[in-house]
Amino acid sequence: MIARESNRRLFLSAFAVLITSFSAVSFAADPPKETKITVTGLHCAGCAKKVKAKLASVANVKSAEVDHKTGLATVVPVDAMKASPRSLWEAVEKADAKPTRLEGPDGIFTSKPKA
Ligand SMILES: [Cu+2]
């Protein structure tokens, strides 16, 4: 009885490991659709709103959220589309803020992307 219970536990934990590795693989194979931009120079909610509006007006952008406290902007593209990292970077600059890092489907940038 005890042996059978521990076998069951062993089976369940092996199963859990299998499921975990499966989800890790599918996560790694699926690049992020969102773009995260680190922005400096956001002093208040008004600054964040300005950046949000500029980001939302970039082609293929569905929505944008900007948090002035964390300095993080999150941009969601229209389904199956990609927003140009360069255009997003420039949108932040046009809102009088300074992007320092951009991470999205095209990679990680710490200076203005070329495309
Ligand atoms: Cu402000």
Provide an overview of this structure.
- With 115 residues, the protein is an alpha+beta fold.
- It folds into 2 domains: 1-30; 35-109, Alpha-Beta Plaits (2-Layer Sandwich), CATH 3.30.70.100.
- Helices cover 43% and strands 25% of the residues.
- It is built from 3 helices and 5 strands; from the N terminus they run αβαββαββ.
- It has helices at 2-29, 45-56, 85-94; strands spanning 35-40, 61-67, 72-77, 98-104, 107-109.
- A hairpin with a 4-residue loop joins strand 2 (61-67) and strand 3 (72-77).
- It starts with a helix and ends in a 6-residue tail after the last strand.
- Bound molecules: copper (II) ion (CU).
According to DSSP, the number of beta strands is 5
Mean pLDDT across residues: 85
CATH class of the largest domain: Alpha Beta
The assigned structural class equals alpha+beta
> Oligomerization state of this entry?
single chain
Concise synopsis of the structure shown:
The chain is an alpha+beta fold.
Q: Notable features of this structure?
A:
single chain; 115 residues; alpha+beta; Alpha-Beta Plaits; 2 domains; 5-stranded antiparallel beta sheet; 3 helices; binds copper (II) ion
What's the SSE blueprint?
Blueprint: H1 2-29, E1 35-40, H2 45-56, E2 61-67, E3 72-77, H3 85-94, E4 98-104, E5 107-109
Antiparallel strand pairs: 1-3, 1-4, 2-3, 4-5
This protein binds copper (II) ion.
